[in-house]
Amino acid sequence: xxxxxxxxxxxxxxxxxxxxxxxxxxxxxxxxxxxxxxxxxxxxxxxxxxxxxxxxxxxxxxxxxxxxxxxxxxxxxxxxxxxxxxxxxxxxxxxxxxxxxxxxxxxxxxxxxxxxxxxxxxxxxxxxxxxxxxxxxxxxxxxxxxxxxxxxxxxxxxxxxxxxxxxxxxxxxxxxxxxxxxxxxxxxxxxxxxxxxxxxxxxxxxxxxxxxxxxxxxxxxxxxxxxxxxxxxxxxxxxxxxxxxxxxxxxxxxxxxxxxxxxxxxxxxxxxxxxxxxxxxxxxxxxxxxxxxxxxxxxxxxxxxxxxxxxxxxxxxxxxxxxxxxxxxxx
Length: 331
Known about the structure:
11 helices
């Protein structure tokens, strides 16, 4: 059927290019539509034949064959993007997305602010920093705090204690460098890049300490969530899903799966509703105010092809610096 439709399409294309009579243009349009319908019918028959023959294979082989077939089919039907250039201004969000970060919450009268981080806690956090990580705009690497002398560590401890008590972060900590990293081999659009946020190493120490206190306030997260949590892995969930598929297929029971992928999940969090959600989680107001202080006034600059964009005021969403992965999971 496809061969006949293709042969007729080639014939109509030949005569339409050599004749000025309008009937050939109409016949060419009909041939194109017939060829499109023939290709669609052929694809439907191919899909039906594949899943019909799939029942003759074992359960594990069915999973592998289905995955390879869907991957091949997706590559065939997805639209091919033409070459395009991404400009530096394309990374700047639209002005209509601006959402003001709420004001600090009133803390309860008579409530005491938890003590600031101790020197021992700061030393433990510094020792856990990873080597070889890219620095922020201040060009201070994690290794600087890991291998510095005791006097520098004490000065950092005093600074973090002052930030915690006064709830006022240095402006340098709110300056974030955003570096786009390709997610595919040949990216053509902005959506094919993953944005990595580079912050100050001192801020990472402060945010990591807030993370430990936030974990105590929020409590344990259910086992339905496996990402961004210690001693958990999404591999366990995938193994459970594979076992369910095998049991259903072996028993001949119909099964419907639905996968949801939240596009730019971190970037779509509404900051205006963040305090109310955290209050619902019974997080103390002092912690909420300090989390809002981390978000308030944050300036981002995109590094693209050796050039820096103008400062961008954060309007919504959470960047990917601790403690925001845990903060996102609590929402």
